[in-house]
Amino acid sequence: MRDLFDMWGNTRMVVLTAMSASLYAAILIPFKVLPIIPGVTEFRPANAVPVVCSFLFGPAGAWGAAIGNIIGDFFGGLGPGDLFGFAGNFLYGLVPYRVWTALMGDRDPIPRTPAQWIAFVAVVALASAACALTIGWGINLLGFVPFSVLGNIIFLNDFLVAVVLTPFLLAVIYPRVKAAKLRYVDVLIQPPRRSRPVQLIGLVVVVVALGGGMILGNGLSTGRLSVPGLSATASATHATQVGIGLAPVVALVVMGLSLL
Predict the structure, then answer these.
(1) For the residues 157-164, what does the mean pLDDT come to?
(2) What pLDDT does 70 receive?
(3) Are 62 and 180 contacting, i.e. CB atoms less than 8 angstroms apart?
(4) Which of 22, 40, 131, 234 could be joined to 92 by an S-S link, Cβ 3.0–4.6 Å?
(5) Which CATH number belongs to the domain containing residue 145 in this structure?
């Protein structure tokens, strides 16, 4: 993940980060008046922005998603849960370009063929699950909202908006950004890619951790599953169960992404 840090030494990448963050925040803020869970999340048509910016600007899109979400949260009231919002949205902007490159190489991220559509939907689903898992875990750990409620809402909110709007936005924007040589691959010197076997291992780890994490989070937060030795300490939101049970899963997601 060296590019996530190297980009801060590139002026154009910093500008693209600021642009991604401001665009995301500008669309998030007006919809604060349409909460799904007041003070926690709302209807977010802006959720297509981090995915589009990820495909276009790579690491700048990831940082832009995290920073833009914090700016948006400022208008709804900041709290300790916003730290997990920062991390979740960072992963939401990180997963698309990393997983797409591992799956499809240097192909443009505009789905046209059936194989490209399958890859695109899978990438959006994984990005949505990474965001939902991280935020749902953190908010439930704090004892605010059960993972079974918040995690599922975030996943559906992210996935449905992004999978519907992103292809149209990419079809219009991507060719122009590519022609202007403003994609992250044009702007930032790319570190050597991992070998194909290592990338495949990383993909398997990410897919298993995210899929299993969503199932485990729902089970722990509803009490259907429990961490051995902690059942007696379960609260109404099963915060301790979720906090301890999902922590290794989140770590596995990060490890898997580092191998891509």
Answers:
(1) 94
(2) 93
(3) no
(4) 131
(5) 1.10.1760.20
From residue 183, how far is each of 107, 123, 239 by CA, in Å?
13, 19, 41
Report pTM: 0.93
Torsion angle of C-alpha atoms 127, 210, 81, 25, degrees rounded to 10: 0
Instruction: Quick: pLDDT tens for 192-250.
Output: 889 999 999 999 999 999 999 999 999 999 989 888 877 655 677 889 999 999 999 99
β-strand partners of 37: 41
Q: Using the structure block, give the residue that is written with the tokens 């961490």.
A: 227
Q: Considering the domain boundaries, does residue 218 fall inside one?
A: no
In a domain, 220, yes or no: no
**pLDDT band, very low/low/confident/very high, at 33 (cuts 50, 70, 90):** very low
Could you give the CA distance from residue 140 to residue 196 in angstroms, rounded to a whole number? 37
Residue 259 lies in a domain: no
Tokens representing residue 178 in the block: 């590519």
Does 41 fall in a domain? Answer: yes
Q: Mean pLDDT highest for which of 1-10, 29-38, 74-83, 203-212?
A: 203-212
Note the pLDDT of residue 174.
97
- Would you give the distance in Å from CA 60 to the centre of its chain? 13
